[in-house]
Amino acid sequence: MTDLRGTIRATADIAARRGRADLVERLERAQQHRSDGTTRVVVVGDFKSGKSSLVNALVGVTACPVDDDLATALITSVRHAAEPHASVAYKGEQGEPVAGAAVALDELADLVDQGHHAGHALASIAVGVPSPLLAGGLELIDTPVLGGLDSPEAVATLMGLPFVDALLFVSDASQEYTAPELSYLRHAAAAGTEVVCVMSKIDLHPEWRRILEIDRSHLRAAGLDPPLVATSSRLHDLAVTYGNDAYAVESGVPALREHLVTNVVIPANAGRDQAAVAEVVGVLDQLESVLRAEQAALSTDINGPSVDELRVSTQRATDLLAESARWRQLLSDGIEDLRNDVRHELSLRLRELGHAAAEMVDNGDPVALEQEYSTWVSRGAAAVVSDCFQLVARKGEELADAVVAELAASTSGLLVSLEVALAAEPTDQLSFTSHSASGGDDEDKVLVAIGGAWGGMEPLLGVAGMIGLGVGGVVAAPVLLAVAGVAGVLTVGRAFRQERRKALSAERQRVKDEYHDYLDEVQVRFAKALDDAVRSVQRQLRDGASTRLAELQRSTRSALEATERAATVDDAARASGVLELTRELEAVAALRVQARSEVRATLQALPGSPGERSTDG
Ligand SMILES: Nc1nc2c(ncn2[C@@H]2O[C@H](COP(=O)(O)OP(=O)(O)OP(=O)(O)O)[C@@H](O)[C@H]2O)c(=O)[nH]1
Ligand SMILES: [Mg+2]
């Protein structure tokens, strides 16, 4: 059992005692990042498959309206709140969600039915309810699929997959997976998103076990391997009403909850904790280096950096902050490349998709197969967009590595070097070693993960703000909503369906034109969204690097000042100074040990970790 919050606070206390407001602020941000961390799970499935009922059963409260006649028409985000509350977001000019108003929970069903509030068309709903499942930062996002899985909303969800931690795919037990369902699942899996399949309504269908087996074989045949959990929200309701534990187990809902917590929420929180520990270690490095330098200056027994050496260090840190520093050039070149790569990828892949669609239309019958064709085109476009967002994230991380390597090289030999090894995977163990000029043995090496160097870089999350969704608190699933808002107004195949009475060749041309226009629109809207994402990566890397360098500059400067001051103090003051610094260094060392054990404990709690069963640490 560890207490990372306590470790962060204790580290901040030392930083405050040493007059390092900059380091205190860094730790406060790290803690904020941890406690605000949200794990997003989006719930998708065909019309009336039982999605909203499942969300309600999982959270244990009626958060989403459920009705035979009423369909979920708005994306609904459900998060934890001590007091139940709800709010709606209005539709902006482009269909994007903008700030709306608070509403009563029992109004929601009517609002969903009407689709507007106070004269504004509704874009989405955010609900807060007290729920132990959600209390760890889980957000469940119930999605509308009015036109089924090929509706613009469902396509938008595919585009937004890079922004969610997992997808809960709901299909009821009445029949085995359909071709569109399997195709949707393949797309989701291809995006690299964690998929959890749920078979709902097993109380209604005595044959559900047989269907479950058939679905398993469909998944295997499609090369997919997601977990498949059978549930009944109805049975779960009965279990709650009658306090019947056997029903509860049979409903599959507790098993699904546990799966979500173990495989989705805990790993996501572990990643955030590791990033926070990396921040703690970074701060301890800064503090320790300065403390050691001061101690050496006061004591004749300890060797430390000379005043000249510290002057050189301070100057080099200052030089590194200048506009002309090499890392800035590296960063701006890298961003330029990234921007071009992403633009190129988007336009090339959409063009290829357009060609393939035209070929399909020329060789087939766009009238008979209109639905299939349109679905194919819109899902293809969704895959391109999702891949491009992922490209930004992946290349952004590569660029972060390159900048960190450059900073490490240019700060080596300074009082505190910014030598950080970054791993590709958040849960990979790696060694984060920071070399104090005055030493630091193996005990000072701590296992941490990516994120530490930049205070938890989240390039994708930056997109939300850039798309213009800084609607604080009203919209709780900003990123996915942003994408849904942009994509949800794009439709393919509608105009076509209304007037198909011409000769086949004319129909073909019309369909090709329509696909062309659709893909053009996707290109225009997402080129901008992707540019914004790249800019957000640039800002985060630049700010992260300059903040680290400013800390370094401040550390070298205070070591220098302390060293200069030491020459002027008398023996008694020296002795008491050394004593105080020794105590502070001991506290730093203890916090290092604590931080290390916290990382170990976090890693060992992850599913599949060899340490999961061990009690060590
Ligand atoms: N018997 C039974 N009925 C269920 C179960 N889950 C949902 N239903 C019923 O199925 C209907 C649709 O349920 P919803 O939860 O609204 O399904 P949905 O997928 O959210 O529907 P849309 O959002 O409108 O597409 C409702 O009448 C529910 O009462 C279940 O586990 N057992
Ligand atoms: Mg629903």
What does this entry look like structurally?
This protein is of the alpha/beta class and 617 residues long. The protein has 3 domains: 1-36 and 272-304 and 569-617, no CATH class; 40-251, Rossmann fold (3-Layer(aba) Sandwich); 320-567, no CATH class. Helices cover 58% and strands 11% of the residues. The chain has 18 helices and 12 strands. The chain has helices at 4-17, 21-36, 51-59, 108-114, 152-159, 179-190, 208-221, 233-242, 245-250, 253-298, 307-321, 326-363, 370-411, 461-467, 478-488, 494-498, 504-566, 571-605, and strands at residues 39-45, 75-80, 85-91, 97-103, 116-117, 120-129, 138-142, 166-172, 194-200, 228-230, 430-432, 446-448. Strands 1, 2, 3, 4, 5, 6, 7, 8, 9 and 10 form a 10-stranded mixed β-sheet that branches. A two-stranded antiparallel ribbon has the order 11-12. A hairpin with a 2-residue loop joins strand 5 and strand 6. Helix 1 runs antiparallel to helix 18. Bound molecules: guanosine-5'-triphosphate and magnesium ion. Guanosine-5'-triphosphate (GTP) is lined by residues 45, 47-53, 66, 68, 71-72, 145, 200-201, 203-204, 232-234.
